[in-house]
Specification:
The protein has 292 residues and is mainly β. It has helices at residues 6-10, 21-30, 124-127, 169-172, 271-278, 285-288; strands at 31-35, 45-46, 52-55, 65-66, 74-77, 86-89, 96-100, 112-121, 133-139, 147-152, 161-166, 189-192, 203-212, 219-225, 228-236, 248-253, 257-265.
Length: 292
C-alpha cells in the first residue's frame, strides 16, 4: 500500500464544471442508493426502501421505527456538508441507524459486486470514543453470516482506519481468534495506519468489492481515499449467507463525527471511476438529478 500525502488528499478539490455524459451514464446506471443529507436523512434516490430507520439495538431491526434517534445522538446539520447538509453523530448509543438492504445493496447469492462512496469529517484521535467505531456496515441477520464495513480501530495511537470484508466466520476465522491477535495476513482487510482525516477537511472514502459468493478464493475488496488507491485485499473465499430480507446498511456505530453524500453502486467501480466520483461537482446528485 502507498502512504497518502496531504497534497494527494487535497487534489481535485477544484472540480470540473460538469461530468461528460459518457462518464455519467455508466455511474448513474450502477447507482442503487444515495442519501445526500441535505434536507432529510431519507434517501434522495433508492432502488428499494428510501426511509432511514432507528432500532432499539442491532438485534431488533424488525421492530425499528422510521427516522433518526434523538438529536442528542444524531442530527442533520444544514450547509455543514461537503455538498449541502450533513449527518452528524454526536455520541454512543445502543440504538442503530440503518437503511433496509433489499434492492439498495444489490445483494446476490451468486457472484456479488458493488461499491460504496461517502465523505467523512472528524479527528479520529480527538473525537472518537473508546472501542471500534464503524461509519457504515453492510450486515445480514447475524454478524457471523457475513459483513462488510469500514472502521476506526479501538486502541491504536493514532487510530487506524480499515476496510473489512468478513465472510461467514467459519471460512475466515475457524479458530475464532480475537481480531487484534491475528496477523495482517489472517484478516481480510485493507489497512491505513496513519489516515488523513481531519476536523477541518472532508475526506472521501470509496470501497469496492467483487466476486463475493463466487465459491472460489478470488474475491477482492479495494479501498480508495481522496480518489487514490490505497490497497486491495484479495485471495479469499468470501461467502456470505444472508437472508436478504434482513440485510441493512447501518450508519454511525460508536462513531462521533460527520457523514455526507452516502451512495451505493451495484458493481465494482474502476480506479478511474473512483477518482471521478471523488471529483463530482455537486456530489452524487450529479448522477441522478435532472437539474443543471
Amino acid at each position: 500500500m502507498r502512504p497518502l500525502t496531504l497534497i494527494t488528499a487535497l487534489a481535485l478539490l477544484t472540480a470540473p464544471a460538469a461530468l461528460p455524459a459518457a462518464e455519467r451514464a455508466p455511474l448513474a446506471t450502477a447507482l442503487t442508493f444515495h442519501a445526500s443529507f441535505d434536507t432529510t436523512a431519507d434517501a434522495d434516490f433508492a432502488r428499494g426502501e428510501r426511509r432511514v430507520f432507528t432500532a432499539v439495538d442491532s438485534g431488533k431491526r424488525s421492530t425499528a421505527t422510521p427516522g433518526l434517534p434523538s438529536a442528542e445522538f444524531a442530527r442533520l446539520v444544514p450547509a455543514a456538508g461537503r455538498h449541502g447538509g450533513a449527518l452528524e453523530f454526536r455520541g454512543q448509543t445502543k440504538q442503530q441507524v440503518f437503511y433496509r438492504g433489499p434492492e439498495n445493496l444489490g445483494y446476490r447469492a451468486g457472484p456479488w459486486a458493488g461499491s460504496v462512496s461517502l465523505w467523512l469529517k472528524l479527528d479520529p484521535d480527538l473525537d472518537l470514543t473508546p472501542g471500534y467505531c464503524d461509519p457504515f456496515q453492510f450486515v445480514g441477520q447475524k454478524w457471523s453470516e457475513g459483513a462488510l464495513f469500514v472502521e476506526f480501530t479501538k486502541d491504536h495511537q493514532p487510530r487506524h482506519f480499515r476496510y473489512g470484508i468478513f465472510p461467514v466466520t467459519k471460512f475466515w476465522n475457524p479458530a475464532n481468534k480475537k481480531l487484534e491477535e491475528m496477523t495482517d495476513a489472517e484478516r481480510p482487510m485493507v489497512f491505513v495506519r496513519r489516515p488523513v482525516f481531519s476536523r477541518d477537511r472532508w475526506t472521501h472514502v470509496l470501497i469496492t468489492f467483487a466476486n463475493l459468493n463466487s465459491g472460489l478464493p478470488d474475491a477482492r475488496g479495494t479501498l480508495y481515499l481522496a480518489g487514490e488507491h490505497v490497497g486491495t485485499a484479495d485471495g479469499w473465499n468470501h461467502t456470505f449467507n444472508w437472508d436478504s430480507a434482513q440485510s441493512a446498511l447501518t450508519l454511525g456505530l460508536n462513531y462521533t463525527g460527520f457523514i455526507d453524500d452516502l451512495a451505493v453502486f451495484n458493481r465494482e467501480l474502476t480506479a478511474t471511476e473512483a477518482r471521478t466520483v471523488f471529483a463530482l461537482p455537486r456530489g452524487i446528485a450529479d448522477l441522478h438529478s435532472t437539474s443543471p
